[in-house]
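Postdoc handover notes: sequence design on the structure in folder B. Input C-alpha cells:
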C-alpha cells in the first residue's frame, strides 16, 4: 500500500504558472459580416510527464490584459473605434467538434473582451474548473487574437495563467 500511495503523490496535483505576451494587428478581415483587422498568435506549452503518462488539466485561472499601442507608448484608441480580444486554451487535436455545432472539442476555455476609446485597456480574469486530458503529445496551446480591430493600432495582449494538473496513465 505504501508504494501505491507514494506513486499517487508523484502524479500530482501540480501547479505551474506562465505568461505569454502578444502584439496583434494582422491583416484586413474580408470574411462576410466582419470588418477591420484580425490577427492571432499561439504559444505552445509542452508538459513532460514520465514515459507512459499523460497530463489531465483540472483548473485554469489567470487573466487576459490588453491595450492599444499606436507606437511604443499605450494610448487610447480614437473615438468610435474598437478591437475585440480573445484568449483560448486548446490542444493539438483537430479543430471543430464531433459532438455539437459551432463547438471546439479541443478547447475547454475561450475568453473575450474589447478595447475602445472609453475602455482603452482591459483585464478579463478567469477561473475555470476543467477535466481536460491532453493528447499524447502533452501540448497545451495558448492562443491570443484580436479581431474587428478598427483602431489603426496594434493591440498588446498579455495572457497570464496558472494551470493545475495531474499525470495519469
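Designed sequence:
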Amino acid at each position: 500500500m505504501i508504494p501505491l500511495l507514494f506513486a499517487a503523490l508523484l502524479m500530482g496535483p501540480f501547479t505551474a504558472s506562465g505568461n505569454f505576451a502578444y502584439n496583434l494587428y494582422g491583416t484586413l478581415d474580408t470574411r462576410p459580416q466582419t470588418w477591420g483587422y484580425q490577427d492571432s498568435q499561439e504559444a505552445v506549452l509542452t508538459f513532460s510527464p514520465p514515459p507512459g503518462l499523460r497530463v489531465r488539466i483540472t483548473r485554469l485561472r489567470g487573466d487576459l490584459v490588453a491595450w492599444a499601442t499606436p507606437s511604443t507608448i499605450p494610448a487610447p484608441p480614437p473615438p468610435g473605434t474598437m478591437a475585440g480580444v480573445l484568449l483560448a486554451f486548446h490542444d493539438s487535436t483537430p479543430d471543430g467538434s464531433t459532438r455539437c455545432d459551432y463547438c471546439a472539442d479541443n478547447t475547454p476555455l475561450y475568453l473575450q473582451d474589447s478595447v475602445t476609446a472609453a475602455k482603452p485597456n482591459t483585464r478579463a480574469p478567469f477561473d475555470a474548473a476543467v477535466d481536460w486530458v491532453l493528447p499524447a503529445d502533452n501540448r497545451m496551446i495558448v492562443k491570443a487574437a484580436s479581431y474587428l480591430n478598427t483602431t489603426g493600432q496594434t493591440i498588446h495582449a498579455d495572457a497570464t495563467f496558472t494551470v493545475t494538473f495531474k499525470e495519469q496513465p
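Context for whoever picks this up: The mean pLDDT is 92. Don't rerun without checking with the PI first.
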